[in-house]
Amino acid sequence: MHDDPELAQACNFLNELRQHAHMLMRRRESTQSPSEPPIPGPDAELAAVRRQIEQLYTRFPALRADAAPRLI
For residues 18 and 36, what is the distance between their CA atoms, to the nearest angstrom? Predict the structure, then answer.
């Protein structure tokens, strides 16, 4: 746990964003057929989540140091 309350809150939000990103990736994989074009909705939402994660890393660099390597 972090001593700084803003950092602790950012860490919690980061974890929620990661969970949401994983859910979006699973949904995209389960609903997309190889012969169909990509569905723009989940891709756009996933891109927005990734941007929010990068913004958290920019504002709270310690979050990046705490994070294990993840592919999202």
Answer: 27
